[in-house]
Design goal:
Elements lengths: L1 H4 L12 H21 L4 H12 L1 H26 L2 H24 L2 H20 L2 H5 L8 H18 L3 H12 L3 H25 L5 H27 L3 H26 L1
Helix pairs in contact: 2-3, 2-4, 2-11, 3-4, 3-12, 4-10, 4-11, 5-8, 5-10, 6-9, 6-12, 8-9, 9-10
Length: 267
């Protein structure tokens, strides 16, 4: 398969061994399944898994592109239940954060990017697991414009640098702000979609979206839609609570592995 792909225009996945290419496709299926189940969250597991196979920059860029494709399948669902009063105040901060994070992404070396990426994702997941924002709500008005803008800017920057994770950072806040599970999921879908459009736009401006990357994304589209559809069916037929807890533990383990990998490369 790898040999056949190398003869296509723009040489997608050039130099990637067949077993590694299979791992890339499997990783994108797994990540997009998660996005289908929860409305967000595909980029982090995809990046964590494919960084070992493609390198951090390539892994992040490809995850951003396939995540954007996957979100198209979910947007109609999100529009039915989104809470615009929660979504609108987040948009300005997200755009500023995406710009800051994209700049950092373009200047960080691959080895340091691996370390930073692992650390940021680990912090995000730990904050969500221990519900730190919910505890802060006892002393701080998390719905104030200052707090909302700060959270959104930080989330946008973290997501842009690490290739994902912005909504692992925001999910604790969104749980407090959205009155029902349905509005939480819809708000996640729409806000995540807007974040991803902004992210891709910034990457295009930065000149990081190549024709080869677009061809690679097209090749992954069948996997993306199959996984998103499967994840949506899973979400509707079973409770995601235990699956989400297992996902958090897995992400922490893999983030730790990335940090170790990056430190080894640096030293």
């Amino acid at each position: 398969m790898a040999d056949a792909l190398s003869t296509l225009p723009f040489s997608p996945f050039l130099g990637i061994a067949p077993w590694a290419l299979a791992g890339v496709f499997a990783s994108h299926f797994f990540g997009c399944f998660i996005r289908g189940a929860f409305g967000f969250g595909s980029n982090v597991p995809i990046v964590l898994l494919t960084t070992w196979l493609l390198g951090p920059h390539h892994a992040i860029l490809l995850a951003v592109m396939t995540g954007l494709v996957a979100q198209f399948h979910l947007i109609p669902q999100g529009l039915k239940t989104v809470d615009w009063q929660v979504t609108k105040p987040l948009l300005g901060g997200l755009l500023v954060g995406v710009a800051m994070g994209t700049w950092a992404f373009t200047v960080l070396a691959a080895d340091w990017l691996t370390v930073v990426m692992g650390l940021l994702i680990a912090v995000i997941v730990v904050m969500d697991y221990f519900r730190l924002l919910k505890r802060l709500d006892l002393w701080i008005n998390l719905r104030s414009k200052l707090v909302t803008s700060t959270l959104a800017t930080t989330a946008g920057a973290v997501g842009a640098v690490s290739g994902g994770g912005a909504f692992y950072f925001l999910v604790a806040y969104l749980k407090l702000a959205c009155p029902t599970p349905a509005t939480l999921r819809g708000t996640n879908i729409i806000t995540s979609g807007l974040f991803m459009f902004a992210r891709v736009g910034m990457l295009v401006v930065a000149g990081l979206i190549s024709y080869t990357l677009l061809v690679e994304t097209v090749l992954l589209i069948p996997v993306v839609f199959a996984a998103t559809w499967t994840g949506t069916k899973f979400f509707r037929s079973s409770s995601p609570a235990r699956f989400f807890a297992a996902l958090q533990l897995m992400l922490i383990a893999m983030a730790t592995m990335l940090v170790v990998k990056g430190i080894v490369e640096i030293t």
